[in-house]
Amino acid sequence: MAGLLIAEDNESNKWMVEANRKTSPQAVTLEDEIHILRNRMEKMFLQEKSFTSDIVIEISRLLDLKINEFMKKRSKKQ
Q1: Which one of 4, 18, 33, 73 has the largest count of C-beta atoms within 10 Å of its C-beta?
Q2: Are 45 and 68 in contact (CB under 8 A)?
Q3: Each residue of 12-55: pLDDT tens digit?
Q4: Are 4 and 24 spatial neighbours (Cβ–Cβ below 8 Å)?
Q5: What is the phi/psi pair of residue 57, to 5°?
Q6: What's the Cα-to-Cα distance from 77 to each of 25, 46, 70, rounded to whole Å?
Q7: Where are the beta strands (DSSP E) in 1-78?
Q8: Pairing of strands 4-6, 16-18
Q9: Is the Cβ–Cβ distance between 51 and 45 less than 8 Å?
């Protein structure tokens, strides 16, 4: 069964992104989440044909949060 990633601080659980692997959600890294979200955003852009559609903007915002989280963790390691 595919693992699910849920956006942090998202009470409605609107953002669930399926990981295409047979692992638990805990085994999916932050980098994996970023790649999954980017791919999802690209697919939605192609489907919607708009950078300003609500769903593309929402995915972009979530992607921004995950990238910021990644950069914070990375800077702490250095």
Answers
A1: 33
A2: no
A3: 334 444 444 455 556 779 999 999 999 999 999 999 999 999 99
A4: no
A5: -65, -40
A6: 23, 37, 11
A7: 4-6, 16-18
A8: antiparallel
A9: yes
Whether 38 contacts 27, CB under 8 Å: no
Give the chain's end-to-end CA distance (angstroms, integer). 36
Helices and strands of the chain, counted as H and E runs: 2, 2
Q: Is the pLDDT of residue 7 over 60?
A: no
pTM: 0.63
The residue written with tokens 């963790």 in the block is 73
Q: Which amino acid is at 47?
A: Q
Tokens of 19: 């990981």
What is the residue type of 52? T
